[in-house]
Amino acid sequence: MKQQFLIVFALAFTSFSHAQLVNIESKRMQTDSIRFVLRSDFSFSYDNYDGDYIYRIGSSLSTQVKSKDLKKIYFLLGNYNLIRSEAQDFQNTWFLHLRYNQKLSNLFRFETFVQSQHNQLLAINSRNLVGAGLRFKLVSKENVRLYLGNAYMYEEEKSDTFNTKEYNHRNSTYLSISATIAESNVNITNTVYFQPLYKDFSDFRVLEQLKIDVPLSRVLSLYTLFDYYHDNITPSGDSQFSTNISIGIGIKL
Fold it and tell me: N or C: which end of the chain has fewer CB within 10 A?
């Protein structure tokens, strides 16, 4: 009975990731002329129920540095989450992403990036990649922004479950649109990623994220997130998809 309670407790504080794709567009910092930004948090909790214990560690870091002319951007994003009991791990994940952005014109940006992530509970336990490509600012108005990006990626994927390690050349294309309703300041953002293998376009992944942000005051907002992920060919040879809907409160100071 105590063990069942611990499982329920852990699941209540766990945000399982069923996909290896991460929406970097949603993590970008729109800071205009601010050259340095740093956001970080760390949390730890420990619970003991008649000798059965569970503890949780969570941390995240995001920082951005711009050059004096504001044409070069260095962006670092990382997080680590662990939920562990005496019997098992309910979550053990980490993620690290480093990106360089160079403005070439009002339309074109060059980007290069490296990324490493690990999740022992997924079929693909670890994924490491390096890539480079172009980012296009198609529309940039007060209430509407539209971006298109295309990049080449070289990735290493490891699956302990299926005892496999693959090295792939993959294309990554994304389209992101953000619109703000002037009267209410409601912001709607939708981003779609499409990532096929160059050698076999039938081996692809799709990630779509829709976010609706409704301001409640100058500080608080209510947001809704919808995520859809589809992997056409998994390490087992099958296809899989997952969907997630979440509602939360945002704080902006």
Answer: C
pLDDT digit string (tens) for 192-243?
Answer: 999 999 999 999 999 999 999 999 888 788 889 898 999 998 888 888 888 9
Give the closest residue to 211 by CA, choosing from 192, 187, 229.
187
How is residue 27 written in tokens? 């993590």
CATH code assigned to 2-251: 2.40.160.40
46 pairs with which residues across the strands? 55
In the chain, the amino acid numbered 116 is S
Phi, psi of 26 (to 5 degrees): -75, -15
Considering Cα of 159, then 163, then 168, then 170, what sign does the dihedral take?
negative
Amino acid at 58: G
Stated length of the chain:
253
Three-state DSSP class for residue 195 = strand
Least Cα distance to 18 among 246, 237, 240 occurs for: 240
**pTM for this structure?**
0.79
pLDDT tens column, 52-95: 888 889 888 889 999 999 899 999 999 898 888 876 777 788 89
- Cβ within 8 Å of residue 163, ≥6 positions away: none
C-alpha to C-alpha distance for 174 and 197, rounded to whole angstroms: 15
Q: DSSP characters for 109-122?
A: EEEEEEEEEEETTS
